[in-house]
Backbone:
């Protein structure tokens, strides 16, 4: 991967596992993981909002940990495991979290949703029964410009508790 | 075959497999190369094009730079130890309550999963938590370079100004060492920010050593109120010999409030930051005092 003579525009070969599949690509040093996922792998579920680590929309799991994909170079993810929002559903079935957030209307414009889903999935993997305060704290690094936080928190709690979803199932 | 516009300025990227190779690259970079550890401060600066290095030397593959170790002298935190790993580390949890308390204020889980303890020190953001913690805990950084070998820099001499440290361009900090806490010392980290995870409007790191009901030593450092955190001690605050800890801490708060020259920006006015400095200083000292074990007894309230 590393040629001593590489300049800024030189392409680096990278290989990583994305949603369980081995993927390869050639990137510039400055290509972020988010750029690679979106532009080369066409996994456009990972959204880019602020592109400097503030909004959380681009959050993915990198080696199982929630990570801002805009703040990681694609070259730094060489050899790593990445899970994106596209990997949450299995065999065409929404995950429990996705279904609960759907049922609770946990999105308005939907732009921030992938980041919230990944961050919430990571929370529930570590703490399957969080309190409302714990959900709010865990999601505090994700911004919803529609300010639809109440329904997002409700959706995550519904997924955690197996409570009746607050929203009606859309037709 | 790339047609998409890219946000970051162009740079070459190298991920050496040994520290020596990394040091060679930095030395050859002649000041144009930057070290990349977790990237949670550097990549945003690249995104905003506040930094334009020609080369990033990524440390990720260099062996021996991760983890937390304990020896007779205290803790050693390697350059690649993330804030998340540090906050979950049993040694940190058992031995460094001040560091542990401060780590929770840093960004968000998705930042701490990549950001490193040493990286935050080297970035030297005047509003960051860890530089203040390093000062109060009298931490020491080990810096390596190709030509000059290894040297130790006390935290006190490390922070020179906003985003400016005593490091030379060809040096890498390989670890930070935190001396074992003296007995009868209690610590506290407090911070006020607009939302959880935001940069501090004001943060205070405090350590107090008590002898019975008397304060025999205190150390303080504030974040967010100047160009860099500074270590304040009893001597520097001209506060020795007070009878009651309560009046001492109250006096310390006033003294700190009068000393700091905080910035005025959209997050908080300078006046409000000065007020916070006074209140948080008193509160942090009081809490640290309460947490300190007393001679012949258990920890206080």
Residues:
């Amino acid at each position: 991967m590393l040629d001593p003579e590489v300049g800024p525009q030189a392409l680096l070969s990278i290989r990583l596992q994305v949603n369980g599949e081995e993927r390869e690509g050639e990137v510039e040093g400055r290509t972020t993981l988010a750029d690679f996922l979106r532009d080369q792998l066409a996994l456009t579920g990972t959204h880019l909002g602020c592109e400097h680590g503030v909004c959380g929309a681009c959050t993915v799991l990198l080696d199982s940990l929630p990570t801002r994909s805009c703040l990681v170079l694609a070259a730094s993810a060489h050899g790593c495991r990445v899970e994106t929002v596209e990997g949450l559903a299995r065999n065409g079935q929404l995950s429990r979290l996705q279904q609960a957030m759907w049922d609770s209307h946990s999105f308005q414009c939907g732009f921030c949703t992938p980041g919230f889903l990944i961050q919430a999935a990571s929370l529930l993997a570590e703490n399957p029964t969080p309190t409302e305060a714990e959900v709010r704290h865990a999601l505090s690094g994700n911004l919803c410009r529609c300010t639809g936080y109440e329904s997002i928190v409700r959706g995550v709690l519904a997924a955690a508790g197996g409570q009746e979803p607050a929203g009606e199932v859309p037709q | 075959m790339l047609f998409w516009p890219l946000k970051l300025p162009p740079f070459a990227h190298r991920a050496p497999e040994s520290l020596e190779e990394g040091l060679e690259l930095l030395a050859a970079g002649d000041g144009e190369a930057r070290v990349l550890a977790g990237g949670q401060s550097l990549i945003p600066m690249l995104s905003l094009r506040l930094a334009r290095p020609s080369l990033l030397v990524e440390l990720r593959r260099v062996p021996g730079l991760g983890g937390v170790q304990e020896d007779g002298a205290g803790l050693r935190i390697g350059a690649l130890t993330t804030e998340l790993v540090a906050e979950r580390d049993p040694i940190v949890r058992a031995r460094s309550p001040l560091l542990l308390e401060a780590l929770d204020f840093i960004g968000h889980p998705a930042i701490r999963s990549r950001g490193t303890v040493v990286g935050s020190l080297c970035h030297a953001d005047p509003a960051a938590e860890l530089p203040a913690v390093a000062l109060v805990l009298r931490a020491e950084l080990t810096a390596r370079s190709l030509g000059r070998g290894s040297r130790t820099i006390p935290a006190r001499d490390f922070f020179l100004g906003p985003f400016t440290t005593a490091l030379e361009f060809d040096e890498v900090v390989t670890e930070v060492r935190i001396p074992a806490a003296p007995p009868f010392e209690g610590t506290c980290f407090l911070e006020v920010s607009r939302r959880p995870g935001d940069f501090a409007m004001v943060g205070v790191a405090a350590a107090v050593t008590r002898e019975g009901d008397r304060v025999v030593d205190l150390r303080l450092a504030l974040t967010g109120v100047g160009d860099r955190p500074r270590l304040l001690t009893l001597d520097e605050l001209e506060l020795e010999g007070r009878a009651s800890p309560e009046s001492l801490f109250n006096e310390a708060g006033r003294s700190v409030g009068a000393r700091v020259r905080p910035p005025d920006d959209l997050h908080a006015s300078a006046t409000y930051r000065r007020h916070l400095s006074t209140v948080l200083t008193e509160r942090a000292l009081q809490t640290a005092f309460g947490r300190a074990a007393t001679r012949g007894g258990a920890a206080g309230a």
Remarks:
- The first strand of chain A starts at residue 12 and ends at 18.
- Residues 113-126 of chain A form the longest helix (14 residues).
